[in-house]
Amino acid sequence: MRQFYKTTYNIASQSADLLKDRMLNWANRFSIHLLLDSNSYKHTIGTFEFLLGVGTDASPTVTSHIALQNQHERQWWLGHVNYDYKNTLFKGLQTNKKEVKAFCDFFFFAPDTILYIERDSTELVIESIHEPDLIWNEILECAPQFDAKLPKVDFKKALGKNEYCEIVDRLRQHIKDGDCYEINLCNYAYAKDVAINPVAVFKQLNSASPAPFSAFYKVGSSTMMCSSPERYLTRVGERVYSQPIKGTARRSHIAAVDEQIKVDLRQSIKERAENVMIVDLVRNDLAQSCKTGSIQVDELFGVYTFPHVHQLISTVSGVLKNSNGFSFSPIEKSFPMGSMTGAPKYKVMQLIEQYEAVARGLFSGSVGYITPDGDFDLNVVIRSLFYNAGTQHLCYQTGGAITWDSVPEQEWGEMLLKGEALERLFR
After folding, report:
1. Does residue 146 register a pLDDT over 70?
2. How confident is the prediction for the chain on average, in pLDDT?
3. Higher pLDDT, 68 or 307
4. How far is it, in rounded angstroms, from Cα 313 to Cα 7?
5. Section 144-166 average pLDDT
6. Catalytic residue among 230, 271, 274, 356
7. Nearest to residue 110, comparing CAs of 68, 82, 48, 81?
8. CA 328 – CA 372 distance, rounded (Å)
9. DSSP letters along 91-120, please?
10. Torsion of CA 101, 340, 240, 110, to 10 degrees
């Protein structure tokens, strides 16, 4: 067990945005780091306003959930689970398509240094194998990342409009035939030979589309810049919570119209049907690792507002069967998250493999943290850009839930809407 030093710093006089910029610039010198930023969204659940962990090639790492379970040892772990880790968790599933984002299927690292600000706190905590005062001084000496002009980028879609709409119709036929009753279909957008500074891109993305589960994640030459509004799963003590999103509506700049859009979203039969189907799936997933009778729906059809869209979000929770120390079980029994698959889960994952053009990789997977006490918080990787510095490949994926009521042209429009905030950065 490595020895850590812990020091707390009063940051009441600091500009929060400038301090976050300095910390991210400081972290960028390390080969591995993960920043998680709640952007001051107020939730009934959640511990940290901001959390940043850094590591090196010499830091302890694990590449499977079994190793993570065995090596947790009451220390911090940060990292990710790719969507395609489903092939390890489910017998008979496989992925034959190319994945170009270059994140391995499962990776968690024990950070050499972790920095965090708890919600509603004016203190920064630094825990490190190094002297915290040295790190604090290095951060203060870092220049903040000012807005940089980003290159103009034209993204190409793996599936064009006609092909995407044809696939929506085929999936509706699968639903009619009884193969499934909801399925998430995603499209892949990419640009080659793009030279960018990922930190500058993330700063502008996080400014234009601040979200409660934003993340900047770097492992070697691969970087993710994430503006996710969705929590996959969090554990607080003996209870776990999941907050699936199903239901999206474009915002209006006219206040009265915007309010009516929120009302229409909440009352939409199609959007409510999508949401409640995933809520039922999540209830079933959590029941496998929670005590009988403890599963509850804390909120159904909550309308949450973000810079560009309104979202329909529900909250499901349960009490763990075993809450002594860290347990991977609630993740194992619920991954991949139902909001990014559909139902029944096993069948729709087979259909996703059949119809989507490119492997999802980290998209619709998760990044997050595990505390020494075994609590954790994991997001859903959506609204995210992926960049490989070695190949200069920039890409993202977006999509939506397909039901029998889906209209292909409208599904194409929703997919474009979700990617709009990402592409706008490069226009």
Report:
1. no
2. 95
3. 68
4. 37
5. 91
6. 230
7. 68
8. 14
9. TT----S---S---SEEEE--SEEEEEETT
10. 0
Classified as helix, coil or strand, 48 is strand
Beta strands 48-55; 32-37: pairing state? antiparallel
Q: Where are the beta strands (DSSP E) in 255-405?
A: 296-305, 309-319, 342-343, 366-370, 376-379, 384-388, 393-402
CA 417 to CA 255: how far, in whole Å? 20
What pTM did the predictor assign?
0.95
Structural domain of 330: 5-426
CA distance 151 to 195: 8
CATH code for the domain in which residue 101 is found: 3.60.120.10
SS3 308: coil
How large is the average pLDDT for residues 121-132? 97
Q: CB–CB of 418/400 below 8 Å? A: yes
- Residue 94: the pLDDT is 92
Query: What is the mean pLDDT of the segment spanning 234-253?
Result: 95
Check if the beta carbon of residue 125 is closer than 8 Å to that of residue 369: no
Q: How many whole angstroms separate alpha carbon 347 and alpha carbon 345?
A: 6
Question: Active site includes 246?
Answer: yes
- Phi and psi at residue 374, in whole multiples of 5°? 100, -5
User: Residue 128: which of 302, 6, 219 has the closest Cα?
Assistant: 6
316-329 pLDDT per residue, tens: 999 999 888 999 99
Cα(252)–Cα(256) distance, integer angstroms: 9
Quick one: tokens of 125? 């905590």
| Catalytic residue, candidates 86, 203, 246, 418 | 246
How many domains, the chain?
Answer: 1
C-alpha 414/C-alpha 265 separation (Å) is: 14
In the Cβ-directed half-sphere of 96, how many Cα atoms lie within 13 Å?
A: 7
- Tell me the pLDDT tens digit for each residue of 177-232: 999 999 999 999 999 999 999 999 999 999 999 999 999 999 999 999 999 999 99
